[in-house]
């Protein structure tokens, strides 16, 4: 009955999320359903278990969500993000339309712009370019997904996306962990994804299919003359990357910085400075990026000005952080149930190659798929089992860096199932349906999920990070 309760709650959470119900509301509902079926008292399970872990997650990662959303909104409203996308797309031309869309999404994502903002920034140019090249519009979502949701989100070392930040808090690593493995996996995803999309384009061309007659959310004619120069627009992105690198790899943090706060016996203080260096570095980098973007683009802000852009970014971050925190709280309740012990034992028993990597990849992938969230699924998995995986790795002399990279890449695997919020947003922005375009997004999902195991095989055979 205890295991059935867990499985039932997971199924209901996934079903309701797919149907569009908020996980902020229903994650605690189904967590408490599982808790009740396991005999735990209802109210303590909510206030102590669920809320305890949700608040811990917010404490750790809210600054990254908030500043990332503000940075993305300022880049969007000032036209800087659109300028970068337009420059790449115009530079490559209609002959390489798919590549242009993929690269524009990749540059923006790797520069620290939220993938949701990337969708809005890239779509108008992608639609115009695909129409000019007479490529089916239904291929746009797959192209944007490949550029924004895959290799620059969680594979390439140094990416400032949250999926690459979360593991640092559990493994004491930094965002440049396992660089060779990350570059190998990310490059493979890019190549295979491009091969798939080009194959689909050629098949459509052979069948005589063009852009198609579309009326839903077709972009209006834009005035490219009002966009800032691309070499100016890219400066805030470079600033985030450079400052982040300096603060992570060059600057020497005082290991005693946390000592006064630990002496105060404050709740939720990190155990060591190394556990929060990546978060502190990204906070500083994003603040620098925001300030530079404001200086460069304040005169181009629409009605409402700077206050509107900053407020919209800050308020928009609340939904993202609360969604993820609710999923993490849900995982904490499930992890406390007796029935989960048998589930976790089964996952930990996956010992292919004698290392924890396959166990980690499968667990993170499954939970990311169930929750429909890369950051949420990974946070649940690491919160439940990171200590066991780390102890396992230490017992065989394995670097925590590869644990970081595998967890990050696995989170971006099965997360893009149909109920994923980014997928739903992407299709809505493009004016298309799951029936029209989800097949290509699912192909990207299969590719990026498979590449996690390629990275595991590479590391197992070579030992290279």
Automatic annotation (TrEMBL):
GO molecular function (one): gluconate transmembrane transporter activity
Is this entry keyworded Protein transport? Answer: no
- Give the record's keywords alphabetically: Membrane, Transmembrane, Transmembrane helix
Q: Name one GO cellular component term.
A: plasma membrane
- Pfam families on file: GntP_permease
Q: Where are the transmembrane segments?
A: 7-34, 54-76, 97-123, 175-197, 229-251, 277-298, 441-461
Q: Does the keyword Transmembrane apply?
A: yes
Q: Which domain of life is it from?
A: Bacteria
Q: What is this protein called?
A: H+/gluconate symporter
Which species does the entry assign this protein to?
Sporolituus thermophilus DSM 23256
């Amino acid at each position: 009955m205890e295991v059935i309760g867990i499985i039932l709650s997971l199924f209901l959470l996934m079903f309701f999320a797919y149907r569009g119900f908020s996980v902020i509301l229903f994650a605690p509902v189904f967590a408490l359903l599982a808790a009740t079926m396991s005999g735990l008292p209802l109210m303590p399970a909510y206030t102590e278990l669920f809320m305890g872990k949700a608040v811990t997650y917010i404490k750790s990662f809210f600054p990254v969500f908030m500043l990332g959303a503000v940075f993305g909104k300022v880049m969007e409203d000032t036209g800087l993000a659109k300028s970068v996308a337009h420059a790449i797309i115009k530079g490559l031309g209609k002959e390489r339309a798919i590549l242009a869309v993929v690269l524009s999404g990749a540059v923006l994502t790797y520069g620290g712009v939220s993938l949701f903002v990337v969708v809005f920034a890239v779509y108008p140019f992608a639609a115009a370019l695909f129409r000019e090249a007479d490529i089916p519009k239904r291929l746009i979502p797959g192209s944007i997904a490949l550029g924004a949701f895959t290799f620059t989100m969680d594979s390439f070392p140094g990416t400032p996306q949250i999926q690459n930040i979360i593991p640092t808090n559990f493994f004491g690593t930094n965002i440049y962990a396992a660089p060779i493995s990350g570059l190998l996996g990310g490059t493979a995803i890019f190549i295979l994804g491009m091969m798939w999309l080009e194959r689909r384009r050629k098949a459509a061309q052979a069948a005589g299919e063009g852009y198609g007659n579309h009326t839903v959310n077709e972009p209006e004619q834009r005035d490219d003359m009002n966009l800032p120069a691309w070499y100016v627009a890219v400066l805030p992105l470079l600033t985030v990357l450079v400052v982040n690198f300096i603060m992570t790899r060059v600057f020497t943090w005082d290991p005693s910085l946390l000592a006064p706060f630990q002496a105060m016996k404050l709740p939720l203080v990190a155990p060591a400075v190394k556990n929060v260096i990546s978060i502190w570095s990204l906070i500083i980098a994003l603040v620098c990026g925001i300030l530079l973007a404001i200086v460069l683009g304040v005169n181009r802000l629409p009605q409402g000005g700077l206050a509107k852009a900053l407020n919209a970014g800050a308020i928009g971050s609340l939904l993202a952080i609360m969604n993820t925190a609710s999923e993490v709280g849900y995982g904490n309740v499930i992890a406390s149930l007796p029935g989960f012990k048998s589930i976790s034992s089964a996952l930990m028993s996956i010992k292919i190659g004698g290392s924890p990597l396959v166990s980690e990849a499968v667990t993170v992938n499954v939970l990311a798929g169930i929750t429909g969230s890369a950051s949420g699924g990974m946070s649940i998995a690491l919160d439940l089992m990171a200590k066991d995986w780390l102890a396992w790795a230490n017992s065989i002399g394995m670097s925590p860096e590869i644990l970081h990279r595998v967890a990050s890449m696995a989170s971006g695997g099965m997360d893009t199932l149909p109920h994923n919020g980014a997928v739903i947003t992407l299709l809505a922005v493009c004016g298309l349906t799951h029936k029209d375009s989800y097949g290509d997004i699912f192909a990207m999902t299969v590719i990026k999920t498979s590449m996690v195991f390629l990275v595991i095989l590479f590391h197992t055979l070579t030992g290279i990070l």
